[in-house]
Design goal:
Radius of gyration: 29 Å
Shape: elongated
Strand order of the largest sheet: 1-2-8-7
Oligomer: single chain
Distance between the termini: 27 Å
Number of strands: 8
Strand content: 5-15%
Largest sheet: 4 strands, antiparallel
Number of helices: 13
Length: 441
């Protein structure tokens, strides 16, 4: 833990040093240490070099930002350039050992988990009209998801602002139980730009909102808007999901390094492990939903190519296409696609499209635009993801489609990793329990 701070003059400059208490120094790099003695803004400066009038001026200048950063405990960084020149510059910085910053890290971790929960909901936007063999984007669900996504983006913006104002301990000075506290705003910004800024910047970009509401409506015609939105969702959500997931792991390590454990009670740790398992099931279930729509779209294209004896435009599979009634081949296409692609055949020996693991999505019509509520669709997909993750896809019948095989392999790998993570946490809890028993006895 960090102890007292001290100002010493080295090379003609006043530098602040932090004295560590006898604990592991590596655990103090975290932004959220639970130190009982936080860094203080009033440093031990000789009264002969700074008179009482300057101290009163410093107090008056700190009143404005004290109210602004009261919850996060802003500190004041004082730079004295010369003893005989009474000049002092102050700016607001955050104590890296304060409990308030630790609480913010915990809150931001919760918001990151909510953010990675909301993003897969974009995969549920495409819905299927089984009677017309076309795709429609749900406007109500689009509005709800984009609003919640914007709220979570706000937490990322606040966190980036706080990172620019959080002091840090210079790694090269952490020896013999001491460390220099760096409060220079340029050094703090340079360190943030060097390490975590670009990950935070990629995670906070409102790419789904901009693409869905601005880019696609203005760049494509109305008869292909739904298809283009479905195709864009495959890339933009997955592209931003990686930096959002990467942002969680540094926060976990910071909280664990500062307190020794992530959560203080055993039941809270078990709930967190269950939350990770359910989050993985939620992500896999939403991917399974979107990929089932993709496979159904592939079946329509194959059927349409047979009916028209050539290639088919993607506008034929968009529900906003209004020329279907005047097209001679379209009734034949809907009949054939209903039998071959949409599960409309009652003959058990009929030849149907090899959906493989997506067969239940077509049989139950979980992506139907009518006749099923979104809550039913969501919980069914969550059940599918949980079942596949817990059984390692042993309950699925996989076809020879390469994309489908790769998807099942990823599910198996994720399931094994989560199981190993759970076993590791159980070993840590068991070791902590044995240590407590030894201390008591």
């Amino acid at each position: 833990m960090l102890g007292s701070t001290k100002v010493q003059k080295m090379d003609g400059e006043h530098k602040k040093f932090v004295r560590f208490r006898p604990t592991t120094l590596d655990s103090q790099i975290s932004m959220g240490s639970e130190s009982d003695v936080p860094l203080r803004s009033g440093f031990s400066i000789d009264s002969s070099s700074v008179d009482s009038g300057m101290r009163r001026g410093w107090q008056r200048s700190s009143k404005g930002f004290f109210k602004l950063g009261q919850s996060l405990r802003f500190k004041s960084s004082s730079h004295v350039y010369d003893d005989d020149i009474p000049t002092e510059k102050t700016w607001n910085y955050l104590d890296p050992t304060s409990k308030a910053l630790h609480r913010w890290n915990t809150l931001f971790l919760a918001s990151c988990l909510v953010a990675v929960f909301i993003d897969p909901l974009f995969f549920y936007l495409p819905q299927v009209d089984f009677s017309r063999s076309c795709i429609q984007i749900s406007n109500q669900l689009t509005i709800a998801v984009t609003v919640f996504r914007t709220i979570t983006d706000f937490f990322y913006v606040v966190h980036m602002f706080l990172r620019f104002r959080t002091a840090f301990i210079k790694p090269s000075t952490r020896f013999f139980g001491r460390g220099e506290l760096v409060t220079d705003p340029r050094a703090i910004a340079a360190r943030y730009f060097k390490f975590d800024f670009w990950i935070d910047f990629a995670a906070v970009l409102p790419i789904p909102q901009v693409v869905i509401w601005l880019v696609i409506p203005n760049a494509s015609s109305s008869v292909t808007r739904n298809i283009n939105t479905k195709n864009a969702l495959r890339y933009i959500v997955v592209f931003q999901y990686f930096p959002r997931m990467l942002r969680i792991f540094p926060l976990l390590s910071k909280i664990i390094n500062s307190t020794g454990v992530l959560l203080e009670t055993a039941w809270a740790g078990a709930a967190f492990n269950l939350l990770l398992y359910m989050l993985a099931s939620h992500i896999l279930g939403s991917l399974w939903y979107l990929l089932s729509v993709e496979r159904q779209d592939s079946c329509w294209k194959q059927t349409c190519a047979i009916v028209v004896n050539g290639s088919c435009s993607k506008q034929y599979f968009d529900c906003d296409w209004n020329e279907s009634s005047s097209t001679l081949w379209y009734p034949n296409f809907t009949n054939q696609s209903n039998l071959f692609c949409n599960g409309g055949s009652t003959d058990p020996n009929a030849v149907v499209f090899p959906y493989g693991i997506y067969g239940n999505a077509i049989a139950q019509q979980v992506s139907s635009i009518s006749g099923i509520l979104f809550s039913q669709t969501y919980f069914y997909c969550l059940w599918v993801g949980l079942l596949a993750l817990s059984s390692l896809t042993q309950t699925w019948s996989v076809s020879t489609f390469v994309g489908e095989i790769i998807f099942t392999i990823l599910i198996i790998i994720i399931g094994l990793l989560l199981f190993a993570f759970l076993i590791g946490n159980m070993q840590v809890c068991s070791f902590s329990l044995r240590a407590c028993i030894c201390l008591v006895t």
